[in-house]
Write a structure and sequence with these properties.
CATH topology of the largest domain: Nuclear Transport Factor 2, Chain: A
Oligomer: single chain
Radius of gyration: 24 Å
CATH class of the largest domain: Alpha Beta
Number of domains: 2
Number of strands: 7
Number of helices: 4
CATH architecture of the largest domain: Roll
Structural class: alpha+beta
Largest sheet: 5 strands, antiparallel
Strand content: 25-35%
Length: 173
């Protein structure tokens, strides 16, 4: 009678050890990934730019987080108003891409954030704008925690609040 691989004790031990190692590695990797539902962030971005289209700047600013407004609110509102005065108000917007970007708080906990890139049309210029939209203190309400604007005509760049540095790791060009 021939011995099969399942009847050899050493083979069984190696098989069980291999499965155990893969399981432990899987658990460790899984704890490093966090699912972030991007729908609430997209809803905030849509509402924000819709209010800007309707020239309702004060209502649009209600969509920023309290922390953002406390630190940068007046300066940023002035920046947006000056941009609108120079380049015209928002006439259209289109989301270009998005990515999950969890932010780490001072206590080490994570809050879900989403970085959404928009192409924004104003009367006289198109701009690339990034909104960093986060859950307020880990509850169901979302708000804009950071905003970046890059004008396509001059390359002029404005930013305030929580901004995300994007790095390319692999390029296929």
């Amino acid at each position: 009678m021939r011995a099969t691989w399942m009847t050899k004790p050493r083979t069984r031990l190696l098989l069980v050890a291999g499965i155990g190692i893969v399981a432990v590695f899987g658990v460790l990797v899984a704890t490093k990934f966090h699912y972030v539902d991007q729908k609430p962030a997209f809803a905030v971005g849509e509402e924000y730019f819709s209010k800007l289209e309707q020239n309702r700047l004060d209502e649009a600013f209600d969509l920023y987080t309290e922390k953002f407004l406390q630190k940068k609110g007046q300066d940023w509102q002035r920046t947006i108003a000056e941009l609108d005065a120079k380049a015209g108000g928002v006439t259209g917007f289109k989301p270009q891409s998005s990515m999950s970007a969890p932010a780490t708080l001072h206590d080490g906990s994570l809050i879900p954030c989403v970085l959404i890139r928009y192409q924004v049309e104003r009367a006289q210029v198109i701009s690339d704008e990034k909104l960093t939209i986060c859950s307020h203190q880990r509850d169901d309400q979302w708000g804009i925690a950071g905003h970046e604007i890059t004008r396509s005509d001059t390359g002029e760049h404005f930013e305030a609040g929580l901004t995300i540095l994007e790095k390319k790791i692999i390029s296929t060009r």
